[in-house]
């Protein structure tokens, strides 16, 4: 047993240690402590939580909680609150806090569409001191500040961001990189100057070349991509293909053994249906020239709806039914030509073995026609033509693949339906791209006071804003007699416009690495006019040929002959019978039309125009029929592979994500009495 003195001595030795530990523990629970908040990591809670933590924290950690709260507020779209919290940050920040605050301030500015003000802040960021999460956000901000404009710098930013991402964010990066590449023209892509060590970027450019060389042949494209993956095994796209190319890898050709062609074979729309059917049959038989006179290119052509007469196949409304319409759909194999030609036409491709069954949609409800086509074993439906019937088919949940020859008022995305229409809206969207590509930024639309004018105006304005343009101006004109009164009085057309008030298409924001940047919002400018020194630099005219002959000189009366305003017109004014006097009067004006009527195939154009008595509206519908055959035979590629294109008789054809077929038209210009390609 130890002496009591020894016990007391050892106890005395341990007591200071215990007391010191208790004192330290008490201090740690009451005094300030080093913050363990990670402001360089992801935000996982709500702004309310972070703000509460900031209120309850000491000075050492309060700023970190504030920074996290600001990030959460921005993520939640609460920009005024985020602005207030940013203003309350202390002047003295640590290096880590300073870098985070720069990112947050830049994000707020970009969210407010102030990209120019955000760029200097992003330039101050020291990327070497950022975490991977911060770097991914930094690159997302750089991407957002580019506002979708494809460039070498944007490609490099995507490539730098890619290794930092996982899951859906990584796939989004791959897809966005590919989209940026495909938005570049072949010339722009070939003119890129890259460094010798940029192997990843070189791989992307080579993949683009493979795609462009083989886009028309699915099997060749598959082989080309496989070879590319062998040559660039470390490229991120070799491991994770862009969604578009992945879909094309899994592409299987749609069956076209039995094609149901749904058209109104009686009534007011019969003349249009006959032109489409003839074009469809000629394309099926592999001919490049018409083989017979059209079935109904007679006096009834003069009764066509005004919108159709001027702009090809406007979305056609249901006509009044004829008294002698049949009660059963007409089902017939289209293997026989309508009549024997005097000479053998040139062949564009071997005649197909597909069986075409034609159904008359004017004879009974479209639901019954679709059911009959399905019972007859149809593998794909081409049609119907009338807008009301297209809407019913879109709502029918049919299992058949459908290439509708019109668009419903509201597009519905179905995996088995594509929409192909020759409409004024389609032309207006193409005009927006053409005018934008020519460097014009302040267009004015000169359109009739009618429903046609409303539709063209809305379509152009929505597409213009999608391209990044400001609000479009519009000006309306009345009848031909009103225009004549204006020219007789010397009033002219002043080109004073009012803003187009239209609901834009759903904007696409940027959302990568947990950071969401809304799409740019367009401001509404005041009324401008050339007569008062305004900034209109382009005028898109939608008029008939007779109206255009009055409108162009009336514009010159007010703007003068030296005006630098460029004039553009739709195909509505491009009709047969425009002689040398008209071409001289229109000098300088650019106009759009389908390739067939723009000289892509002179022999076919000449013979087809003759067959339809120089009615260009019917020629355009004939060309639509030819393209409908081609689209039906590439249905799955158009449906499954966004970016897939075909060179058609009605334009360069491509499909958007809803499988609405878009057409890039041919643009020509009147020059010294001749028609030449527009620059």
Automatic annotation (TrEMBL):
| A GO biological process held by the record | peptidoglycan biosynthetic process
Domain of life where this protein originates: Bacteria
One Pfam family linked to the record: LppC
| UniProt-annotated stretches for the region Disordered | 302-353
Q: Which InterPro entries match?
A: LpoA, Peripla_BP_I, TPR-like_helical_dom_sf
Q: Which UniProt keywords apply?
A: Cell outer membrane, Cell shape, Lipoprotein, Membrane, Palmitate, Peptidoglycan synthesis, Signal
Which first-to-last residue range defines the signal peptide? 1-25
One cellular component term (GO) for this entry is: periplasmic side of cell outer membrane
Q: Where is the composition biased (Low complexity)?
A: 328-352
Where would you say this protein principally sits, based on its record? membrane
Task: Return the PROSITE patterns for the record.
Answer: PROKAR_LIPOPROTEIN
Give the Polar residues compositional bias ranges. 318-327
Topology relative to the lipid bilayer, per the entry, is: Lipid-anchor
Q: Where in the cell is it found?
A: Cell outer membrane
Query: In the record, what terms sit under GO molecular function?
Result: enzyme regulator activity
Function, in words? Regulator of peptidoglycan synthesis that is essential for the function of penicillin-binding protein 1A (PBP1a).
Q: How does it assemble?
A: Interacts with PBP1a.
Provide the family line: Belongs to the LpoA family.
Which protein is depicted?
Penicillin-binding protein activator LpoA
Which organism encodes this protein? Candidatus Pantoea gossypiicola
What taxonomic lineage is listed for the species of origin? Bacteria, Pseudomonadati, Pseudomonadota, Gammaproteobacteria, Enterobacterales
Gene name tied to this protein: lpoA
């Amino acid at each position: 047993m130890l002496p009591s003195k020894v016990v007391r001595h050892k106890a005395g030795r341990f007591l200071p240690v215990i007391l010191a530990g208790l004192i330290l523990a008490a201090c740690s629970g009451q005094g300030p402590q080093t913050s363990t908040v990670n402001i360089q990591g992801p935000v996982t809670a709500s702004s309310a939580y972070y703000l509460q933590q900031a209120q309850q924290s000491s000075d050492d950690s309060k700023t970190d909680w504030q920074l996290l709260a600001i990030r959460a507020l921005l993520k939640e779209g609460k920009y005024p609150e985020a602005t207030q919290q940013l203003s309350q940050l202390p002047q003295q920040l640590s290096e880590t806090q300073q870098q985070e605050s720069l990112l947050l301030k830049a994000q707020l500015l970009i969210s407010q569409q102030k990209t120019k003000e955000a760029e200097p802040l992003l330039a101050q960021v020291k990327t070497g001191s950022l975490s991977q999460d911060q770097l991914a956000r930094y690159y997302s901000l750089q991407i957002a500040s580019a506002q979708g404009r494809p460039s070498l710098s944007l490609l490099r930013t995507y490539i730098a961001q890619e290794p930092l991402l996982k899951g859906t964010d990584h796939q989004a990066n791959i897809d966005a990189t590919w989209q940026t590449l495909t938005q570049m023209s072949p010339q722009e892509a070939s003119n890129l100057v890259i460094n010798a060590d940029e192997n990843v970027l070189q791989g992307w450019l080579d993949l683009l070349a493979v795609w462009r060389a083989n886009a028309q042949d699915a099997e060749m494209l598959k082989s080309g991509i496989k070879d590319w993956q062998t040559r660039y095994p470390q490229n991120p796209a070799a491991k994770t293909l862009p969604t578009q190319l992945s879909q094309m890898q899994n592409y299987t050709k749609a069956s076209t053994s039995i094609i149901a062609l749904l058209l109104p074979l009686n009534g007011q729309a019969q003349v249009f249906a006959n032109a489409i059917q003839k074009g469809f049959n000629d394309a099926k038989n592999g001919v490049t020239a018409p083989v017979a006179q059209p079935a109904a290119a007679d006096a009834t052509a003069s009764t066509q709806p005004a919108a159709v007469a001027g702009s090809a196949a406007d979305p056609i409304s249901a006509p009044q039914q004829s008294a002698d319409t049949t009660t059963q759909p007409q089902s017939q194999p289209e293997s026989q030509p309508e009549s024997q030609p005097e000479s053998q036409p040139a062949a564009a491709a071997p005649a197909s073995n597909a069986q075409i069954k034609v159904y008359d949609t004017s004879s009974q409800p479209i639901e019954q026609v679709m059911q009959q086509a399905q019972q007859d074993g149809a593998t794909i439906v081409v049609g119907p033509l009338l807008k009301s019937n297209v809407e019913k088919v879109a709502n029918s949940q049919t299992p058949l693949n459908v290439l509708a020859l019109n668009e419903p008022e509201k597009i519905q995305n179905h995996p088995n339906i594509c929409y192909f229409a020759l409409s004024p809206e389609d032309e207006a969207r193409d005009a927006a791209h053409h005018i934008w590509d020519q460097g014009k930024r302040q267009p004015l639309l000169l359109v009739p006071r009618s429903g046609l004018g409303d539709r063209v105006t809305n379509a152009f304005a929505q597409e213009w804003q999608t391209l990044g343009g400001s609000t479009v101006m519009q000006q309306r004109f009345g009848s031909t007699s009103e225009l004549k009164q204006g020219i007789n009085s010397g009033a002219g057309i002043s080109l004073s416009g009012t803003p187009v008030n239209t609901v834009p298409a759903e904007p696409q924001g940027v959302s990568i690495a947990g950071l969401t940047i809304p799409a740019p919002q367009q401001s509404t400018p005041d009324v401008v006019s050339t007569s008062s020194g305004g900034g209109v630099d382009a005028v898109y005219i939608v008029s008939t040929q007779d109206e255009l002959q009055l409108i162009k000189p009336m514009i010159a009366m007010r703007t003068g002959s030296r005006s630098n305003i460029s004039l553009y017109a739709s195909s509505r004014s491009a009709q047969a019978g425009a002689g040398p006097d008209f071409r001289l009067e229109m000098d300088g004006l650019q106009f759009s039309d389908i390739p067939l009527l723009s000289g892509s195939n002179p022999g076919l154009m000449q013979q087809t125009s003759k067959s339809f008595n120089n009615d260009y509206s019917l020629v355009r519908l004939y060309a639509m029929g030819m393209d409908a055959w081609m689209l039906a035979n590439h249905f799955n590629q158009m449906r499954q592979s966004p970016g897939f294109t075909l060179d058609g008789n009605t334009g360069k054809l491509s499909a958007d994500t809803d499988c609405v077929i878009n057409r890039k038209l041919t643009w020509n210009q009147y020059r010294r009495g001749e028609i030449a390609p527009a620059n």
